[in-house]
Sequence to fold (321 residues):
Amino acid sequence: MIGRNLIARNLEQATGFKPCVLTIGNFDGVHLAHRRLLRAATDAAGNAGLRPAVLMFDPHPSCVVAPERAPRLLTSLEERSELIRGEGIEHILIQPFTAELSRLTPEEFATKFLRDGLGARIVIVGENFRFGCKQAGDTRTLKELGARLGFEVQLLETVRWRGRHVSSGEVRKLVAAGDAGIAARLLERPYAISGDIVHGHGIGSKQTVPTLNLRTDAQVIPARGVYITRTSDLDGARRWNSITNIGYRPTFGSDDVLSIETFLLDPLEGAPPERIRLEFLRRVRDERKFESPEALKAQILRDVGRAKAYFRRLKGRDISL
Fold:
């Protein structure tokens, strides 16, 4: 018997999805526009007595059809799946994207996946949705196919936030530029990266302030600089307000490897974490070279003061990012 919250890795594993309300996409970042699609699918499924489901692809289609244009991803498949299920989606098909799949015509794709494979009764997509070989199909094509193949098509308008077109590409640009605050608005949560704690050079504990040094496999790293952050164990059991520097340590001679160093504003009780998740709340300043370790330490303490004031304001306004 197929239960709720199933993740299928091919059509054969997704037979229990039928019948369903389906939305389709890569959902990288699971941002504001994605969430509206997911919520629309969940609402429509509830009204129709169907299962809400998602079809997404791995790897990103660009990796197959245009590798030189393949984007750096904001979220792993596991992160995406968790966020998608958090919006009430019961079933997710992570379909392997192959050269063979990329050659399917819009009609072949709709027949194989939407009608036969997933038993979609309602398909909900954004108004700029494209599909099929060389993206030959658009929403008009999808509606025509739906009328022939037996599914309804619902369209959502392009989502904007204060004039910005909400998209994964826009979020990538914001994160890469260090605009953590606006990125969080488009994501409806802070942008975050995770990884292992590794040993640094030991300079911080001796000459400035002790830090946790993060090694991450994240593909999109915020721009060099200092950020107000929130740090947690990966299981979320412990959380700390923090401040983080991303850069090449110019005061001590530039390294070849980018470092991500976090200073916790709250006491570290218990054993130091082995793996952490960093949420980027706001950018404080650029990374720069100081004339001495003492001058750097003084600036870090000023940065800490700004971060503490930020968290006090959040607490006073009862806001959780």
User: Anything to note?
Assistant: The mean pLDDT is 91. The radius of gyration is 23 Å.
